[in-house]
Amino acid sequence: MAATGLLMLIDDITTLLDDIALMAKTAARQSTGMTDDVVTMTKVATQKTAGVLGDDLALNAEQVSGVHSDRELAVVWAVAKGSLLNKVMLVPAALLISVFLPAAITPLLMVGGAFLCFEGIEKIMHSWQRMQARRQGMPYAPAAALAQPCAVATTPEELSQHLQALEKEKVSGAIRTDFILSAEIIAIALGTVASQPLLEQAAVLAIVALLVTVVVYGLVALIVRLDDVGLSLMARSSAALQALGRGILQATPWLMRTLSIVGTAAMLLVGGSLLVHGMPWIGHGLEAALAVIARWPVAGLWQFLLPQLVHVIVGALIGCAVVVAVGLYQRLRGSAAKAVATH
Questions:
Q1: What is the residue extent of each domain of the chain?
Q2: Interacting residues of 123 by C-beta distance below 8 A, sequence separation 6+
Q3: How far apart are CA 58 and CA 164, in angstroms?
């Protein structure tokens, strides 16, 4: 009897091990299938965010330019860490909103779009004021810079403090702008996986967020250090490499100016596209116009340019309206403060 009981126990253990092996094999297949699905969806999501990535690159390269050459990589690293923190907050927030309050996604993106348009118009205004001051032979500094307590530095310590304050403000502004662009990237990626299980959605969004941060800020770091690349090539013995280095040095200022213009235009373009997405009547009108344009010569070019033009115009109009509203608010607040002070 004891031997029979022992054989039965061994048989039960063997059957249990077979069941465990079968379940492990099934789980492995499911895990492999899920991994394949995540990779495929990540590829699709990344392709759909490619347009925003271009704007993100131009904007961030323009935002971190203008600092001292010794601090460029430190600024890029600070903004990159802020961008990663933005995405750490945005990914779970996007998943929660998608599950519990999906109707809030579009209004939130529109608010972010309005802020981008506001910043774009402000940059255009500052550029115009700087150009006018240069024509008149007068120095120019934005009001924000003049408001700094160390705007007029008289000692090396004050100058260092002033530069640190300006650098901190530049990093903060770049991180704020990145937050809106990151939100759009996460929203676009979420739209590609909305019908998938929550775990796969989270995996895709996390991978896209990490890839976007590494790619964008890796390229930004390369762009802002192009002058070092040029100098390094000029130190080589090869005449061809020296010529390439001189070409890079000569092209770098033009590239930075171009990125500044493209970055400002991207603010209006991205902000306008976010706003238009929440204005169905503009979208319907645009679709009707594209249907008419389809019969024109070179229809493909016009069909590409028209939406961009509409987005920029909408972005510029909303940006101007926000600038006026902010200016009126600040003036009223200043008047109220003066009234309180006199009483």
A1: 49-259
A2: 264, 267
A3: 24
Q: Write out the two tokens for 322.
A: 């926000």
CA within 13 Å, CB half, 202: 11
Q: Which residue has the tokens 């990626």?
A: 189
What span, in angstroms and rounded, lies between the C-alpha atoms of 71 and 171?
12
User: What is the phi/psi pair of residue 149, to 5°?
Assistant: -65, -20
Q: 38-42, 89-93, 163-167: which has the highest mean pLDDT?
A: 89-93
| pTM more than 0.90 | no
Instruction: Give CA–CA dist 30/50, Å, rounded.
Output: 30
Q: Which two tokens stand for residue 326?
A: 């902010």
CA 52 to chain centre: 7
**pLDDT tens-place string over residues 294-343:** 888 777 888 888 888 999 999 999 999 999 999 898 888 877 777 666 66
State the greatest distance between any 2 C-alpha atoms of the chain, in Å, as a whole number.
110
Contact 211, 46 (CB under 8 A): yes
Q: 192: how many CB neighbours lie within 10 A of its CB? A: 21
The residue length of the chain stands at 343
The residues near 250 (Cβ < 8 Å, ≥ 6 apart) are none
Q: What is the distance between the alpha carbons of residues 284 and 302, in angstroms, rounded to a whole number?
A: 17
Residues 168-210: pLDDT tens digits?
888 888 888 888 888 878 887 787 777 778 888 888 888 888 8
The C-alpha atoms of residue 278 and residue 109 are separated, in whole angstroms, by 9
Write the DSSP string, 250-312. HHHHHHHHHHHHHHHHHHHHHHHHHHHHT-HHHHHHHHHHHHHHTTSTTHHHHHHHHHHHHHH
Token pair listed for 42:
């990540």
- The first and second tokens of residue 105, run together, are 């996604």
Are the C-beta atoms of 105 and 303 separated by less than 8 Å?
no
